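Could you show me just one protein sequence together with its fold in token form as a worked example?
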Amino acid sequence: MQNDSSSIRHRGKAAAQQMDGLDAETSTPTAIDTPLDTPRTNSPLNLSIQAALEARIIYPPKRIKRRRWFISGIAIGVITALSAILYVNPTQNTHINRMQEILGDFDVSALLPDSLLSDEFVHDMTKLLALDKQSGPIRLTGEFEPAMTLEKEGLRKKHNVVLVPGIISSGLESWSTANCSRPYFRQRLWGTSTMFKAILLDKECWVQHIMLDKRTGLDPHGIKLRAAQGLDAADYFITGYWIWGKAIENLAVLGYDSNDMTLASYDWRVSYYDLERRDQYFSRLQSRIELAQRTGAKTVLVTHSMGSQVVQYFMKWVESPRGGRGGPQWVDTHIEAVINLAGSPLGVPKTLASLLSGEQRETVQPLASYLLDHFMNRKELARIFRSWTGLAALLPKGGSAVWGDLSGAPDDPVSNHTDVSSQTADSNVHSDVSFGGQIRFDSDGLGNQTMDGALQLLFDALDADEQRLMHRDYSFGVFRTQSEMDAHKDDHRVWTNPLQHQLPNAPNMSIYCLYGHGAATERAYYYTFDNSSDAPSLKIDRTPRPLRNVDIGIVNGEGDGTVPLLSLGYMCADAWRKPLYNPHGVRVVTREFVHNPLAVFKDIRGGADAADHINILGNHDVTADVLRVVAGHGQDVNDRFTSNIREYAARINIP
């Protein structure tokens, strides 16, 4: 064991030294087609923003009783959740007593605000409580199913399993011992009821812990937060709200335990580059997989959301002489399959809004997002989000080639390929808006921006340290030739972008892309200037518009409620089936699932046919596919298309 630890430390140090050398050698590769490679702090777009701001009157910010809103919201949310759980799923009653910890210290009735139901709250709750659209037999999210049924059919464990969670899924616990950290030693400041109590009662200390140092992208002085370890690091976010819990239950039925099933949790705030430098994350993952193969079985990597990017990065890192130095055959030798659940290989537009203006409107959990937005102002949220160098990994990739331009977007409705440069609310009554204009301005002297322009707008809004770290860690363009691929195969920045690197030399490996669609998903935005001096200069323009796919400033498209269909499916359904991006013939399977939830009063998580971004982890059919692959029956899992992704992909002009 001591030798293994020494080997890991040695490998991590060597890899970090190699990566540091790479940073010095390839800090500005001109061949990388990304709007972020060259900082342009004096760009015409940035100067126009400054001029517009100087011409506007700045009003003092309004004071909002955020603490009272947050506490009262938690009360409503917990009561609603408990009622739904008790009504439909008595097997979860074991969690009820522990959930009382969240409210145990508060007199909620004394903290209710005078005006409880704002228009936005009513709007979100209406969506949450909408009647289900499911037809046919009702399937609730039951325990240990479908594994119990499949076990009777003869399925047994075969391959080792590593679960790789998505962003914000892994719990983060404090290892600091100074100042305000002491009461939270080895307690989770992200996840569990401790997080809620810390935000409510010790907000300043919580913010100090959750932020990263903006100069280094690592821990602030005197602060140390690390990812919780073990299967319980991401099985439940808080008591009663499962993430990987259902998947773990089902895998256990086939015979898996902690010896052949692990959860590779990570600090999702940190860039992939710094995950290796600080935590030796990829070195440890490599050693874990190599050790597991001593049993004679390969490993299946099951990822969710951002975890799909983590594994893509890992497979390039482990091959590279500047990373794990495993050589070109390592992946084929050790990995049986990669299963991406609701993967986000091409990023998520809502990341742009989070970093640009500190705004998020999480459609998966509208009530939780509503409470967070009303407890912290946009300036605080933007400051936190921009310190998380890992969050930028989810910025959209591919620019206008993938996401469209002002003449239209590949995923526009078929009848909607029109010029959006002059579209306004008045000229498009009751019509759809094209997605090609990623950020729109009705006025304020700024024109509509494509994805390339929107990313430049964000870059101009960042300070010098934030620009430097983003440039160090990421690239967002497209490679169209083999020579470009060869020239940058060891550049760690392109390992985060599937349009700028190739799948590994692993002809015996399979990649499965399983995702849901049919839920309204943030695709583009209307923006305006902010009159407040205590916030980012831009904000989402929530002016009502009589447009079918616009909801309080957010242009909704097709996806799983968080990730648009283009990001979920383009690489799997199209690009990874082309020689440039898959030169070694890795088998790629795409499986689509229509989001078909039950009403919340029947099952608060949507039931066994819910396929939105989080609840797909409990989807009956998705879980069955995962179980078949890990049991060695991957040949029975084949393509299933139920959306228009192939039609959208045909409109993207990438070789």
Observations:
- The longest helix spans residues 2-25.
- The chain has a mean pLDDT of 82.
- The CA atoms of residues 176 and 223 lie 5 Å apart.
- The longest strand covers residues 519-529.
